[in-house]
Design brief:
The protein is an alpha+beta fold. The protein folds into 4 domains: about 80 residues; about 130 residues, GAF domain (Beta-Lactamase); about 150 residues; about 90 residues, no CATH class. It has 19 helices and 15 strands. The strands form 3 sheets. The chain has a 5-stranded mixed beta sheet. The protein has a 5-stranded antiparallel beta sheet with strand order 7-6-10-9-8. It is elongated, with a radius of gyration of 36 Å.
């Protein structure tokens, strides 16, 4: 365990140290009495008298480390040396205990409990959903402030309060160094340290100023404590995936039974509103070996602040907020990115947080199977809604629901080597237009008229009924030629 000079200054507070500290590094791991015969060590604090350095100096004890100095109101070298050695031993014992807890799969609260004597301050840890994970249990209700009491009692402050804080300090989620939130929205000044995993914010540790102003030595101790918390996250990140927005969204779009309330809560904390129009896009590449989805997700998340992109199976799922970026602007901004990345996209339908994320993504996934897959293009799911509907129907209805005319025509064609099945389908889908049907089939008009007359003789002529035509067209679409042949083969056997 390496200490800073500010931590030693706090430890030696009873001797009223006068500090001249400029480097403030965590480098001290040993202590020795000063001697002119010793060569300086970059990790040792030297303890001597002021007169050892200056001929006109007094017998006051001085602690030096590189260019940093603590001048103490004491002349007892042995007492100060023992005091510094005690500090090194105390923090080393704490470090050893924390490392043992990390190695033994300890809970977060165990780390807090083991640090109560080192950091006897109101400190808590929240995850990316801004829920309470652990805290210093040294303080009674009413001893700190109402926000602390609410977090301890309910696991999180009021959602409206959190949203107001996030709106007031929108940049706080990207800060990687220790930062301060002054009293205002919070009852007291707070010192905060964020935690990240794969460039994603996963939580924040907060030290609340309680009573006396927080010293630099205490902040240094807090930073060391946060280092242990970061290690805990790195060890347990797979178990704690739910604290990351990515994994909340992935669970919501892939698990029909997922409780998406945490995802909704997390989106609201990003200042997304429950009534906002949301849109899911599924991005793919027509070149399967060319797949750099994780990298591209990071690129999207860094470049656009109105969306969240995650790696979902072999695709990229994008959740966009149409209030923050309307659809035309969204398509325009993503088109160039898609083209340069050689990806294409399929957009779903607008929905809100109250709807099922799973159903929205399933819809996009199915309709994306039918588009042209041209890089740089964003296709609308509405254009492929019918193929989606037909695919859903194919998996739920029995073949016997098909109009009997199909089986009759297939059997007749097979027996007489005719093509009435295809002729009838083409005639119906062209809305019984003789010109369009003849052009598509490359038939003379008279030949087509002959076939239509034969069709009426074979299957009847009740095609003026729109419901009959709908039944026929759905039967053709649901049971195409390849599937029809399997049914016929089975019937003949």
């Amino acid at each position: 365990m390496k200490l800073s000079m500010w931590m030693l200054a706090d430890w030696l507070n009873a001797y009223h140290p006068i500090a001249n500290i400029t480097s403030n590094t965590f480098s001290i791991w040993s202590a020795r009495l000063f001697s002119n015969e010793l060569s300086a060590n970059d990790h040792t604090v030297y303890i001597g008298r002021l007169s050892d350095l200056f001929h006109t100096g007094s017998d006051q004890v001085i602690c030096t480390f590189q260019n940093d100095v603590l001048l103490l109101q004491s002349t007892d070298l042995e007492e100060i040396l023992n005091c510094v050695l005690n500090a090194l031993e105390f923090y080393q014992h704490w470090s050893t205990q924390m490392l043992e807890l990390l190695a033994s799969d300890a809970m977060l609260q165990d780390l807090f409990h083991a640090s109560e004597t080192v950091l006897p301050q109101p400190v808590f840890l929240m995850d990316a959903s801004q829920r309470f994970l652990a805290h210093m249990q040294l303080f009674e209700r009413g001893e700190i402030d109402p926000v602390w009491d609410e977090m301890v009692a309910f696991g999180s402050p009021d959602l409206d309060f959190l949203i107001s804080v996030n709106q007031a300090y929108p940049e706080r989620f990207i800060k990687k160094d220790l930062y301060v939130l002054e009293a205002g929205l919070f009852p007291n000044r707070c010192y905060n340290q964020n935690f990240f995993f794969q460039e994603k914010w996963i939580g924040t540790a907060v030290l609340i100023e309680h009573g006396n102003p927080v010293s630099q030595g205490l902040l240094d101790t807090f930073s060391l404590f946060c280092g242990f918390l970061q290690r805990w996250f790195e060890i347990h990140i797979e178990e704690e995936q739910s604290v990351i927005l990515d994994f909340l969204l992935l669970a919501a779009i892939t698990d029909a039974n997922d409780d998406q309330s945490e995802l909704v809560r997390r989106l609201q904390l990003m200042s997304w509103q429950p009534q906002d129009a949301l849109l899911i896009l599924k991005l793919d590449t027509p070149f399967p070996p060319f797949s750099i989805n994780q990298h591209l997700c990071r690129s999207l998340n860094l470049q656009f602040d109105f969306l969240c992109a995650i790696h979902a199976q072999r695709s990229i799922c994008v959740l966009a907020n149409l209030r923050l970026c309307p659809l035309p602007a969204l398509v325009s901004q993503l088109a160039a990115w898609l083209k340069s990345s050689r990806y294409y996209g399929m957009q779903g339908r607008a929905f809100t947080m109250a709807d099922s994320f799973y159903e929205q993504y399933q819809y996009v996934s199915i309709v994306s199977e039918f588009c042209e897959k041209k890089p740089g293009q964003i296709y609308s799911g509405e254009a492929y809604a019918l193929p989606y509907l037909l695919k859903k129907l194919q998996s739920t209805i029995l073949p016997q629901i098909a109009h009997p005319a199909l089986a009759l025509l297939s059997s007749y064609d097979q027996k007489h080597h005719t093509d009435f099945y295809q002729t009838f389908y083409c005639y119906l889908k062209n809305e019984r237009s003789l010109a369009r049907t003849a052009a598509e089939l490359k038939l003379h008009r008279n030949s087509l008229l002959y076939r239509i007359q034969r069709l009426k003789e074979l299957i009847g002529d009740d095609w003026d009924d729109p419901m009959v035509r709908l039944h026929l067209l759905l039967s053709f679409a649901l049971f195409p030629e390849s599937q029809k042949k399997r049914h016929l083969s089975s019937d003949q056997q």
